[in-house]
Amino acid sequence: MVIRLSPRSNFSDWCEAIETLITGLEAADVTGQLWIIKNGNIQEYRTIEPENKN
Q1: DSSP state of 49
Q2: From its phi and psi, is residue 50 left (phi > 0), alpha (psi between -120 and 50) or beta?
Q3: Using CA atoms, how far apart are residues 9 and 16, in angstroms rounded to an integer?
Q4: Rounded Cα gap, residues 35 and 43, in angstroms
Q5: pTM of the predicted model, to two decimals?
Q6: Which terminus of the chain is more solvent-facing, meaning fewer CB atoms within 10 Å of its CB: N or C?
Q7: Is the pLDDT of residue 54 over 70?
């Protein structure tokens, strides 16, 4: 997980980011994924599985 906040973030910005993270963790499993938390949203990136060429 990566939390991206502006360099001028305040306590309220951090609280919003942590609340977004907690809500996301309650709803989904983060295993094998990259989450980027920014502006109250979660961008989710999954591991790309290699194709089986057999």
Answers
A1: P
A2: beta
A3: 11
A4: 6
A5: 0.75
A6: C
A7: no
Give the up-direction half-sphere exposure of residue 43: CA atoms within 13 A in the CB hemisphere. 7
pLDDT tens-digit series, residues 16-39: 999 999 999 999 988 889 999 998
Would you state the pLDDT for residue 48? Answer: 67
Please measure the distance between the N-terminal and C-terminal CA atoms of the chain and give it in whole angstroms: 34
The 3-state DSSP class for residue 25 equals: helix
The pair of three-digit structure tokens given for residue 37, joined into one six-digit string: 């938390």
| CA-to-CA dists, residue 46 to 17, 26, 53, angstroms | 21, 18, 21
